[in-house]
């Protein structure tokens, strides 16, 4: 049975949401072993869906992606 996690990040503008999505795209293309990750944009929201066969891989993927989202947001605020 697949384990799943979904996150929705709301931004002030589509531009900010798109910037974070573009920042994550190399990681999504690179693929974490044993995990499937999808990103989508809708208006000012970024949706992140992570799916894995086991809980430990799901937790590791969630930790990585949440850290990368946080880093992208912080860098965007500095620029």
Summarize the structure.
The protein is α+β, with helices and mostly antiparallel strands and 79 residues long. It contains two helices and three strands; from the N terminus they run βαββα. The chain has a three-stranded antiparallel β-sheet with strand order 1-3-2.
Explain this structure to me?
The protein is built from two helices and three strands. The protein has 79 residues and is an alpha+beta fold. The protein has one domain (3-78): 2-Layer Sandwich (TATA-Binding Protein), CATH 3.30.310.50. It has a three-stranded antiparallel beta sheet with strand order 1-3-2. β2 (35-42) and β3 form a beta hairpin. The longest helix has 24 residues, at 55-78. The N and C termini lie far apart (43 Å). The relative contact order is 0.25.
Topology:
Blueprint: E1 3-10, H1 14-30, E2 35-42, E3 45-52, H2 55-78
Antiparallel strand pairs: 1-3, 2-3
Helix pairs in contact: 1-2
Overall residue-averaged pLDDT value: 93
Shape: elongated
What is the assigned CATH homologous superfamily?
Alpha-D-phosphohexomutase, C-terminal domain
User: Total strand count, please?
Assistant: 3
List keywords for this structure.
2 helices; 3-stranded antiparallel beta sheet; 3 strands; TATA-Binding Protein
């Amino acid at each position: 049975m697949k384990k799943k996690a979904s996150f929705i990040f709301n931004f002030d503008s589509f531009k900010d949401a798109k910037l974070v999505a573009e920042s994550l795209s190399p990681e999504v293309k690179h693929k974490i072993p044993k995990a499937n990750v999808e990103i989508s944009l809708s208006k000012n929201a970024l949706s992140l869906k992570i799916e894995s066969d086991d809980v430990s891989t799901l937790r590791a993927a969630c930790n990585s992606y949440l850290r990368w989202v946080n880093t992208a947001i912080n860098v965007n605020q500095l620029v």
